[in-house]
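We examine the record.
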Amino acid sequence: METLGITLFRVLAGMGVLFIMMLATGRRQLGEFSSFDFITSLTIGAVAGSLIVDHQTELVSSLIALVALGGLQLFFGWLSIKIRPVNYKLNFKPLLLVENGQIIKKNLRRVHMPVEILLQLLRERDVFDITTVELAVLEPHGRVSVLKKAEHMPLTPSQVNFNVSSNSILVPVILEGKLQEAALTKMGLSAQQIEEFRRLHQDTIHNVFIAFMDQNKQLHVIHDDVREQSVFLH
């Protein structure tokens, strides 16, 4: 029982420090990590794992090591913003892989990328014919950005002088049969309108899985039986 208590305490202490470090370093996905960030994160994980499972490891020393690693990560993150050469060393520069439909073999060799992998990355960007590519750039996070040739890009409404309505954000106002009054208030409905809506639809709201409202006060409803319909507020 004592061992279990020690383990739980170490878990809470380690997770607490890691959570604070996560808040300090900001929201980033794994694909946005630099090589230094990735190595540091692996080291932090190893230290945290040792802290939890190995009771012979001194708790205070391990927590100090975690804080030091997090501080080092923050410092180099700040340094990469202030000094561009440091940023390029830690994150690498964008690298041109395809130009005017032609693969730049020298750059492929620099990043040790087989042609098959390049073609796979292009297919993931909906490019199945490399001759349609104007530029393909390998970004620091490992993804490929693609610019197609002008004649292979889709037309936009502005190019054909066609007026379209602006996009609107759909706000969830009913979730699993529960009316989201705060969301309706943000959409501009008064308390009286919300109550009137509740009264009119009290027999059907509980059957709604999710309902979105647009800026025109139109609801897009998905029922529990996956049938979709639209209703209007009056």
Notes: The beta strands are 95-99, 102-103, 133-138, 144-148, 171-175, 178-179, 208-213, 218-223, 228-232.
